[in-house]
Amino acid sequence: MHKSRSAARSTLSLLRAPPSTVSRSPVASTSTITSSARTLLTSASSSSLNARISATSSSRSASIAAVRRGFATVTDHPASPIEEESAEAEEEVERAEDDVDVCIVGGGPAGLCAAIRLKQLEAEQGREIRVVVLEKGGEVGSHILSGAVIEPRALNELFPDFMNMDNPPPMGQPATSDSMRFLTSTSSFPLPHPPQMSNTGNYILSLSRLTAWLGERAEELGVEVYAGFAGASLVIAEDGKSVKGVRTGDVGLDRQGKRKESFEPGMQFNAKCTLIAEGAHGSLSQIVQKHFNLRKDCDPQTYGLGIKEVWKVDAEKHQPGKVTHTLGWPLDIKTYGGSWCYHMEGGLVSLGLVVGLDYQNPYLSPYKEFQRMKHHPLFADLLEGGECIAYGARVLNEGGLQSIPKLHFPGGALLGCSAGFLNVPKIKGTHNAMKSGMMAAETAFNALHPDKEVEITKNSLDQPLEGSAQEAVDMSPYETAFKESWVYKELNEVRNLRPSFHNPLGLWGGMAYSGVDSLFLKGRTPWTLRNSWEDHAATKKASECQPIDYPQPDGKLSFDILTSVSLTGTNHAEDQPVHLRLPKDEGARARHTETNVNEFAGLLGRACPAAVYEYQDAEGGAADAAGKKFVINSQNCIHCKTCSIKTPTQDITWCVPEGGGGPKYSRFEEKSLYRLFRMLINRLVSSSTRI
Ligand SMILES: Cc1cc2nc3c(=O)[nH]c(=O)nc-3n(C[C@H](O)[C@H](O)[C@H](O)COP(=O)(O)OP(=O)(O)OC[C@H]3O[C@@H](n4cnc5c(N)ncnc54)[C@H](O)[C@@H]3O)c2cc1C
Ligand code: SF4
């Protein structure tokens, strides 16, 4: 175990680039330091991953083999022009393969708790189990937005009495007070705070740091954690009836999908059980749900976009442990959402705004709503004299219980926010994600060692499966365990709150219903309100809506979007295939531009919280349609997934870029001098570009 851990660590250390070698402007057209360092690094680490796997698997029958041996893959970019070329090239590719017991895609709270629980069972039951975790972030935790309030219930089940561990988790600051307020543009009023929303016993912490801590514990127990390696496609049995593992993305392809000198084919992990823990709207999660029709008996999933900043505030204004949530301004009554403000340890404050992605007005900019929100006296008084040190954005599931798909498929299962376990009114999903990972791990362990049943629930498989699926690991007891767990109970209780905002009175109707339900009914109603449509379908045509006049940022409380993006540390090797893909046919770009510009006023230019999309004025052949050229600054992407959810034409597919690319949310713990230096450089670069 030690050997495996240190080998994995040396792979990790290769992946960690010194910031100076990979830093770049978030603006596509002005990228400064580009791919060479990163490519060398990624290529080196990919080779060393292969070498490590060969070394550790000599006793485990791993092999370097041609891939085509009875498997098909389902890629995350079925419409990509690259696929054809790669498929052609693939015949010649020697791809490293490795056989593992469990392959987990996603090193977030759900995936890591699953990995840890599997290894705990290995130790308890004396049965060896090989567990691999693939994480697309350059480091474990780097794609996890910091500054959250966490319920410790699941953590306590995984590590009882965790505060007395030799190396306790970084639990930050205990929550000390709670309030809910309603905002008008100039004032705020207290609202009743339902008891089940209480934060007593919860912790305000950096979720990125907690996730990194879970990653360390997983490695200590013998889990092989590979950060910087994205799961790019699923390995499907030839008859299509079961999942047989995961393939990581190729590295060293240029923008056109051609191999560069640094080309390294992705690795194939053949797994008895594949657990998908990618968080909300994951790319493989979407594919597996479609392939196995997992959503046929549930409502559509709906989402909110959470935009978050972390501020260092004046010591006098800082009230450690204070938790505030708001409803109302700056959003109108037809737009669901609300803000949070958490006083963390160390003089830091996490604040942010969630905007339901079923918003109707295509002129709305979630980023600008958040920027203007900070000028409200409730926030301005707190932030004045402080410094914004981190920015990030990510979608969260809002569909609740009625939007959770079937959780298992032959050969694996969906975990955490990949399935959609977030408690929307609480804006909390970490505890549920962790618990789901633990339940999935117990099911997987039982399925792999049927003579060593771990008590979670009775096996509920009554239906025999056909074909190769019969041989696939059966994860159906995980679904039963979920329905018998406290996660289900909690989600059932709040299931009607979010959908109650779909009513003719908007905010007023939703607040009235949720007040009564959460204070008195507590979900004990015979009815369940439905989520009837996907978010993009709620968007109205621009001709039916009014443009919104947002104030200019003042550079003190509010910022332009590129300044904010520079705080995410996002980075993608420049010369790689664009990971935001339109359909491959020639007319796709023109069709997209025509409809999105003419009918929806170029919605993506406002919806994306990282200024990735632009519809630039253009003439003649330079225009795609409607006098505009559609530009995708993919390097800026912070992996929030909004575009593929909200685009009215539903023609943007988010695919994993080369592993290691994307935001670095753990960066806010870097020394502030270095941070200021980076900001200055980014400002200088971005001032010479168009916005
Ligand atoms: C703005 C915002 C505020 C929130 N506030 C709170 C809060 O205060 N309290 C709370 O409890 N919860 C909060 N949540 C919810 C919480 O973040 C999630 O419920 C929780 O992180 C879910 O854990 P997960 O492991 O399922 O997914 P994630 O935490 O999203 O982790 C998924 C991991 O998988 C990786 N990944 C994705 N795709 C791939 C791939 N193909 N290959 C390899 N790796 C991949 C990602 O990089 C990521 O590291 C908030 C969420 C948001 C967006
Ligand atoms: S391109 Fe899409 S996924 Fe990336 S930051 Fe913009 S909206 Fe989010």
From TrEMBL:
<dbReference type="InterPro" id="IPR007859">
    <property type="entry name" value="ETF-QO/FixX_C"/>
</dbReference>
<dbReference type="GO" id="GO:0005743">
    <property type="term" value="C:mitochondrial inner membrane"/>
</dbReference>
<keyword id="KW-0813">Transport</keyword>
<feature type="compositionally biased region" description="Low complexity">
    <location>
        <begin position="7"/>
        <end position="17"/>
    </location>
</feature>
<keyword id="KW-0408">Iron</keyword>
<feature type="region of interest" description="Disordered">
    <location>
        <begin position="1"/>
        <end position="34"/>
    </location>
</feature>
<keyword id="KW-0999">Mitochondrion inner membrane</keyword>
<feature type="domain" description="4Fe-4S ferredoxin-type">
    <location>
        <begin position="628"/>
        <end position="657"/>
    </location>
</feature>
<dbReference type="InterPro" id="IPR017896">
    <property type="entry name" value="4Fe4S_Fe-S-bd"/>
</dbReference>
<dbReference type="Pfam" id="PF13450">
    <property type="entry name" value="NAD_binding_8"/>
</dbReference>
<dbReference type="GO" id="GO:0004174">
    <property type="term" value="F:electron-transferring-flavoprotein dehydrogenase activity"/>
</dbReference>
<dbReference type="Pfam" id="PF05187">
    <property type="entry name" value="Fer4_ETF_QO"/>
</dbReference>
<protein>
    <recommendedName>
        <fullName>Electron transfer flavoprotein-ubiquinone oxidoreductase</fullName>
        <ecNumber>1.5.5.1</ecNumber>
    </recommendedName>
</protein>
<keyword id="KW-0479">Metal-binding</keyword>
<comment type="similarity">
    <text>Belongs to the ETF-QO/FixC family.</text>
</comment>
<keyword id="KW-0496">Mitochondrion</keyword>
<keyword id="KW-0830">Ubiquinone</keyword>
<keyword id="KW-0809">Transit peptide</keyword>
<dbReference type="InterPro" id="IPR040156">
    <property type="entry name" value="ETF-QO"/>
</dbReference>
<keyword id="KW-0274">FAD</keyword>
<dbReference type="InterPro" id="IPR049398">
    <property type="entry name" value="ETF-QO/FixC_UQ-bd"/>
</dbReference>
<dbReference type="GO" id="GO:0051539">
    <property type="term" value="F:4 iron, 4 sulfur cluster binding"/>
</dbReference>
<keyword id="KW-0411">Iron-sulfur</keyword>
<comment type="function">
    <text>Accepts electrons from ETF and reduces ubiquinone.</text>
</comment>
<dbReference type="GO" id="GO:0046872">
    <property type="term" value="F:metal ion binding"/>
</dbReference>
<keyword id="KW-0472">Membrane</keyword>
<keyword id="KW-0285">Flavoprotein</keyword>
<dbReference type="InterPro" id="IPR036188">
    <property type="entry name" value="FAD/NAD-bd_sf"/>
</dbReference>
<dbReference type="Pfam" id="PF21162">
    <property type="entry name" value="ETFQO_UQ-bd"/>
</dbReference>
<keyword id="KW-0560">Oxidoreductase</keyword>
<keyword id="KW-0249">Electron transport</keyword>
